[in-house]
């Protein structure tokens, strides 16, 4: 639900709640929100109150004290942020809190995550995860701070394969799962961009996400090489009568240690429910 921050477009809360119900009814009922994603937690709370379907729903939020990590080493600040998330999402216990830290040279992150663990023991949090931690500091959280983290949310795509250098091996050894985002690179990994000229910064289609992932493509090899990749993905997609996006998501979903791929939803603007349901409609790798 990063798309509801407002940086991409104006947000219609009523339509967003309506679309969340459709996703949940279709079995796509796990929503990745954050205390820093604009009204994301409030929208989830509205949805959670109104949802009457039988399929289970989950809301994963984040603990992000903000740059400078002000007061994040005190129970007062940590608990206030967690209680705010609980109130916004209208739940007594948060399904999962994903811990984010801005500056590793500020080693208070161990104190901060221990307060989160205390709140977990007190029943305010069910599971603890991490967000954008590198392997070294993820290891410190688990091994040195003694905190059981069930997951780490990181960018992972057919182009951005950084988790394969060290992180996946460590995660398999310590039973920590990866939640992959950026897998569709803001929508760039789709038929929409096959055979198209390189988007410029001034193009009206440009969003913060596309600008971010376009930078990754430039570092990876450039637009011409990216077009070659899209062509190969398109050939695979046509063979199985699916989309480029389906192939890109399934490629990462089948990777070792990956528990889930987070796909951005433009709530209230467009839906890709049928396409997302097709991700497991074709043969993939044997997961280990």
Automatic annotation (TrEMBL):
Q: InterPro entries from the xrefs? A: NAD(P)_OxRdtase_dom_sf, NADP_OxRdtase_dom
Residue ranges of domain NADP-dependent oxidoreductase in the record: 3-280
Name of one Pfam family that matches: Aldo_ket_red
Its protein name is: NADP-dependent oxidoreductase domain-containing protein
Q: What taxonomic lineage is listed for the species of origin?
A: Eukaryota, Viridiplantae, Streptophyta, Embryophyta, Bryophyta
């Amino acid at each position: 639900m990063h798309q509801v921050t407002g940086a991409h477009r104006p947000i219609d809360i009523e339509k967003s709640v309506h679309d969340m119900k459709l996703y949940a009814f279709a079995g796509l009922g796990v929503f990745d929100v954050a205390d820093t994603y604009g009204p994301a937690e409030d929208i989830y709370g509205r949805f959670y109150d109104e949802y009457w379907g039988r399929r289970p729903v989950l809301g994963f939020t984040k603990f992000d004290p903000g740059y400078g990590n002000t007061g994040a080493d005190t129970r007062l600040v940590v608990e206030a942020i967690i209680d705010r998330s609980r109130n916004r999402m209208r739940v007594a216990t948060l399904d999962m809190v994903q811990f984010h830290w801005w500056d590793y040279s500020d080693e208070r992150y161990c104190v901060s995550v221990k307060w989160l663990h205390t709140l977990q023991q007190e029943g305010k949090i069910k599971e603890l995860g991490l967000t954008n931690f590198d392997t070294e500091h993820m290891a410190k959280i688990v091994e040195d701070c003694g905190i059981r983290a069930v997951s780490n949310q990181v960018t992972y795509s057919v182009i951005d394969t950084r988790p394969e250098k060290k992180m996946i091996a460590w995660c398999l050894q310590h039973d920590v799962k990866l939640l992959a985002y950026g897998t569709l690179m803001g929508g760039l990994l789709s038929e929409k961009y096959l055979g198209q000229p390189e988007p410029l910064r001034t193009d009206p289609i440009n969003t913060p996400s596309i600008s971010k992932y376009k930078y990754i493509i430039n570092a990876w090899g450039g637009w011409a090489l990216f077009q070659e990749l899209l062509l190969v993905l398109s050939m695979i997609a046509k063979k199985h009568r699916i989309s480029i996006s389906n192939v890109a998501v399934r490629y990462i979903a089948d990777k070792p240690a990956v528990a889930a791929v987070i796909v951005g939803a433009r709530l209230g603007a467009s839906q890709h429910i049928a396409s997302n349901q097709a991700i497991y409609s074709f043969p993939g790798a044997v997961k280990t």
